[in-house]
Design a protein that fits this description.
Strand content: 5-15%
Helix content: 40-55%
Shape: globular
Radius of gyration: 23 Å
CATH superfamily of the domain at 82-295: Spore Coat Polysaccharide Biosynthesis Protein SpsA, Chain A
Order of helices and strands: HHHHEHEHEHEEHEHEHHEHHHHHHHH
Length: 471
């Protein structure tokens, strides 16, 4: 039974929405002159790129021939029984770096308990009793000695693992498996078995956010779109998240070339692996749940760090990005057009689009309360915002239908009407993050200290700087 509508129906609906929007704008006089046409194009600039991206990703998902659930690309592996899988499975380890996690030790232990004999932890110089508690409970926990931060700590931990361990599952302390109780081990080992037999370097799981208020639900919908449309469409050129399954040798090779900065650490890992010709795919049979940010301050700090890390890695790893682009059109689209051009170079134009939308919304509110403080101009006509909002909401609804299985859509339907505003607000931390990178390069200090930043310098290629992020 299908879990999603046919891609051709969604594509037809997307095109119909775009045509209807242009027709409505023309009938309302928004396209009656050259200036108005330019303003209309700028107002809809963000939506145009989102529509193009949605169409491309729907086509790519269909092109890869992936099943509704499982690897995002057909691996071509023969079916084997559970008994054969158990005999064929090479040793694996679940690894994580912990720092001052004493208050969350019980939750971490509960998450990892089904795999206790396969878990290897490193205490990254905690100032509390994290190390003592874990060792008292009988867990394999290496004393880090100095606070290396996650990439360097994991590299140190890998050096201590038994040689026979061929696969490692990198975990974060703030996540948990989202599978039925008792199915943690069978699910993970099935994913590991497929990775080992495929020869790929890594696979990345589906990421979900725990239920919460409006802000958490917007982040949860964002994660679903990033996984169900973004990663699901990338075949074997995917980008890892903070929790991923790696071939041990591949992870060691990446960390040996890594800057060891925790800003966009997983993005950097992915670029290094893909440049070497390795394969990374998305597998949504493995689901992890993370805690979304519950306040605007925390979200701002997180997203500033993500944007800073993205800018840092893109600039430092341009040779890797161009090497991936040479692997084929998919690599060029994702890593050059989508990330570099659409995500960075076109940001000033998107800010103009956002400013026009804000002026149109203010004029609409001005008319609504009958204050008439703002004179009507071609760039602040209320209909500009109204048409953009209606089209965006419908496109998001179609994206929800495409990204999520049938039984999981209801949770996010209530988020769709508000997600347009959430998406526009994300440009604020993005701009601050990029400015942080520029300020650090030009004058050696940031304009905003995100909560990852306890080291003012990260100019050097191997400086250890705290941060993280989901790609």
């Amino acid at each position: 039974m299908r879990t999603n509508p046919d891609s051709s129906l969604i594509l037809a609906a997307v095109i119909l929405v775009c045509v209807a929007g242009v027709a409505a704008a023309a009938s309302a006089g928004l396209l009656s002159g050259g200036t108005r046409v330019v303003i209309f194009l700028f107002v809809n600039l963000i939506l145009v790129f989102d529509v193009i991206d949605l169409i491309v990703r729907l086509w790519l998902r269909k092109l890869h021939g992936a099943a509704a659930e499982g690897p995002a690309v057909a691996l071509g592996l023969p079916e084997i029984s559970n008994a054969e899988r158990a005999l064929d499975l090479s040793p694996y380890a679940i690894i994580a770096s912990l720092h001052d996690e004493a208050d969350d030790t019980d939750r971490i232990i509960a998450t990892l308990l089904p795999f206790k004999e396969a878990v290897w932890l490193i205490d990254d110089a905690s100032s509390d009793d994290t190390l003592v508690r874990l060792r008292r409970e009988g867990w394999n926990c290496v004393a880090g000695g100095v606070n290396r931060k996650k990439p360097a700590a994991l590299r140190h931990l890998l050096e201590t693992l038994p040689a026979e361990i061929q696969t490692v599952v990198v975990m974060d302390p703030d996540v948990r498996w989202l599978v039925p109780p008792g199915m943690e081990r069978p699910t993970l080992e099935r994913v590991i078995s497929d990775l080992q037999r495929s020869g790929a370097a890594a696979c990345t799981p589906r990421v979900q956010a725990r239920r919460g208020g409006w802000l958490e639900e917007c982040q949860a919908f964002e994660y679903e779109l990033a996984c169900g449309l973004g990663r699901k469409s990338l075949g074997e050129l995917c980008c890892n998240s903070g929790v991923s399954v790696y071939r041990r040798g591949a992870l060691e090779a990446a960390l040996n070339r890594h800057s060891l900065s925790v800003y966009a650490e997983d993005f950097e890992n992915s670029l290094l692996l893909l440049e070497m010709g390795e394969r990374i795919y998305y597998d949504d049979r493995l689901i992890i749940e993370t805690q979304a940010k519950s306040s605007w301050n925390h979200l701002l700090s997180q997203r500033v760090g993500w944007a800073f890390g993205c800018a840092k890695v893109i600039v430092e790893r341009l040779p890797q990005i161009f090497a991936i682009a040479r692997r084929g059109p998919l690599g060029a689209y994702q890593y050059v057009f989508y990330l570099c051009i659409n995500g960075v170079l076109l940001l000033p134009l998107k800010l103009v689009s956002t400013a026009l939308l804000a002026m149109s919304l203010l004029k609409a509110l001005d008319d609504l309360v009958l204050t008439q403080w703002l004179p009507l101009r071609p760039w602040n006509e209320p209909l500009l915002f109204c048409l953009w909002y209606c089209k965006s909401a419908v496109i998001l609804l179609l994206a929800c239908l495409a990204a999520l299985p049938r039984g999981e859509r209801r949770r996010h339907l209530a988020t769709v009407p508000f997600y347009c505003f959430y998406g526009l607000l994300q440009y604020i931390p993005t701009v601050i993050g990029y400015l942080n990178w520029l300020a650090l390069r030009i004058r050696g200090r940031r304009i905003y200290a995100d909560h990852y930043d306890d080291d003012a310098g990260c100019n050097g290629s191997r400086t250890v700087v705290p941060t993280g992020g989901l790609s």
